[in-house]
Specification:
Helices cover 64% and strands 0% of the residues. It has 255 residues and is mostly helical. It has two domains: 4-88, Arc Repressor Mutant, subunit A (Orthogonal Bundle); 103-188 and 223-254, Tetracycline Repressor, domain 2 (Orthogonal Bundle). The longest helix has 29 residues, at 159-187. The chain is flat, with a radius of gyration of 22 Å.
């Protein structure tokens, strides 16, 4: 019996020659193809979440048997990898070679697009951490990010650090924001109503009221009449801090 520690680690659907397969030969169910299966998978994940997703549920949505889906994908993991990359295909990618576009604007476009993607597809962030995430759309995004960061003037040894600083921040911000809107949806209220109810409960509790009072001036200075405005202001300011940091490191490398 093979011990668990000796089993081969799963790599990726993109490395095993399965991502390009159109089917397993004759006898596939009519009316199905991998693109349609992936598209419906994304839609189900958006509507019901990652925890409720199953091949059986997908098959029901497609009005086929679960075995029919397996003509096109070997495992649920393979399908989730395909869905993950399909989502990355929604990202707008600026042209890093456009001479009239500043790298700062291009970086903000990439960061804002990634944030919106994480919020729109709340299931994306756990999958991005689970899989290698090396599908063609994901690699296209990573390549554009790298090209834009190269244009900053940072030395080569600082490129990956700058990418990590910006996009791990965006990953965390978008993930938490996505969780917040999921809670709002579960509560069946607007984001602003949820925020007011939560803040009221926190202020009324003796265990947390002091923290809120100490932060009152910060909250007032933060600005924004709605949750969306507050989130956008914080994101924009944090991203500006990171851009300023990159600019400072470029100047330091030139001295």
């Amino acid at each position: 019996m093979v011990k668990a520690a000796q089993r081969a680690a799963r790599t990726s659907v993109w490395l095993e020659g399965k991502a390009r397969r159109g089917g397993r030969g004759g006898g596939q169910p009519s009316g199905l193809d991998r693109d349609r299966i992936t598209e419906v998978t994304v839609r189900l994940l958006d509507a019901e979440g990652l925890d409720k997703f199953s091949m059986r549920r997908l098959a029901a949505e497609l009005n086929v048997t679960a075995m029919s889906v397996y003509w096109y994908v070997d495992t649920k993991d393979d399908l989730l990898e395909l869905a993950l990359d399909a989502a990355f295909g929604e990202l707008p990618l600026p042209d890093p070679d456009a001479g009239d576009e500043d790298w700062r604007d291009q970086l903000r476009t990439l960061a804002a697009g990634y944030r919106a993607l994480l919020v729109r597809h709340a299931w994306l962030s756990p999958l991005a951490g689970r899989y290698l995430n090396i599908g063609p759309h994901s690699l296209a995004f990573s390549r554009q990010v790298q090209r834009v960061i190269r244009r900053t003037g940072l030395p080569a040894h600082g490129v990956t650090g700058a990418i990590s600083a910006v996009f791990q921040f965006v990953y965390g911000y978008g993930t938490i924001e996505g969780h917040f809107f999921a809670r709002v949806a579960d509560a069946g209220v607007t984001a602003d109503d949820y925020f007011r109810q939560a803040m009221s409960a926190v202020v009324d509790s003796p265990d947390t009221a002091d923290v809120v009072h100490e932060s009152r001036d910060i909250m007032a200075a933060r600005g924004g009449d709605t949750v969306a405005e507050m989130l956008d202001r914080d994101f924009t300011f944090a991203l500006d801090l990171l851009v300023a940091g990159i600019e400072a490191m470029v100047k330091r490398s030139e001295t």
